[in-house]
Write a structure and sequence with these properties.
By secondary structure, this protein is an alpha/beta fold. The chain folds into two domains: 48 residues, no CATH class; 209 residues, Glycerol-3-phosphate (1)-acyltransferase. The chain is built from nine helices and seven strands; from the N terminus they run αααββαβαβαβαββαα. Strands 1-7-6-2-5-3-4 form a seven-stranded mixed β-sheet, sandwiched between helices. Helix 5 links the parallel strand 3 and strand 4. The longest helix is centred in the first third of the chain and has 25 residues.
């Protein structure tokens, strides 16, 4: 979206400068176009940096911000274009209207951003490892977009994060995503062991659990940027809140794992 807008504006601007004889030499056309293109990106980048300085890491935000989500969407769509990503999404019709817990296998650092870009209307945030908070600018945008920090070394803080995530979903302020594997699976096929505690969010929120699988996001950084990467995000089913209420976290975990494995094995 951002790069397409930038390209169109730069083309129009360059043409107008040529038509009105501001540019009087042909060889200057590509230079003017490139200058305008990079200038727009620079202005946008500076506006993003300035805007994120008003985000307080110490504050828990309870209200959705279309303004900051717009920046997240622009960054994700720009990355999709830069890395030549073609995203295929299926099963969206099974997603409930109410807020939910989203669970998926984990293959790449891009997984949360990819998923957030296609679930905008559900205000989807993620419970993510503290490492993401080391990324300048993006960390602030994620924090403002209902992404919650998880620190495996601080059990008390983790418990508070799970409680807050459950509260956001229960109060219908945001849907929350989490990766029950706990870290990226770098092996081909299969799943890492699940952390059953991830499903406490669903129990506390008494909400549906949307189960999904993602395929090929690890290729984004492995292949050259000019090579087309087909990434598949498949919503494979929903555990309704009655099922969540009637089963413990271990049973929910086993059910979700079986659903994911069935899909992963069928895609081989």
């Amino acid at each position: 979206m951002l790069l397409k807008f930038d390209f169109i504006v730069s083309v129009i601007g360059t043409v107008l400068l040529y038509v009105f004889d501001v540019i009087n030499k042909i060889y200057m056309i590509p230079l003017i176009f490139l200058s305008m293109f990079l200038g727009i990106i620079l202005v946008w980048g500076l506006s993003c940096i300035i805007a994120t300085r008003f985000i307080d890491f110490e504050k828990d935000y309870d209200e959705y911000s279309p303004f900051y989500r717009f920046y997240v969407d622009c960054i994700v769509q720009s990355l999709n274009q830069i890395f030549n990503i073609k995203l295929h999404v299926s099963g969206e019709e099974c997603i409930p209207e109410e807020k939910f817990l989203f669970v998926c296998n984990h293959r790449s650092a891009m997984d949360p951003l990819i998923t957030m870009s296609v679930t905008k209307k559900y205000n989807l945030g993620f419970v993510a490892k503290k490492d993401i908070y080391k990324i300048p600018v993006i960390s602030r945008l994620m924090h403002r977009s209902f992404c919650l920090k998880l620190d495996r070394e601080d059990v008390k803080r983790d418990a508070l994060t799970i409680i807050r995530a459950g509260k956001l979903v229960k109060e219908q302020k945001a849907s929350i995503g989490i990766y029950p594997e706990g870290t990226r699976n770098k092996e081909e096929g299969g799943l890492l062991p699940f952390h059953n505690g991830a499903f406490k969010i669903g129990k506390k929120a008494k909400c549906p659990i949307v189960v999904a699988t993602i395929k090929n996001p690890e290729l984004i950084f492995k292949k050259p940027f000019f090579v087309r990467k087909h990434v598949y995000l498949d919503y494979i089913g929903v555990l309704d809140k009655e099922f969540v209420a009637e089963h413990n976290t271990a049973e929910i975990s086993d059910t979700v794992r079986d659903m994911m494995l069935a899909k992963i094995n069928s895609d081989r």
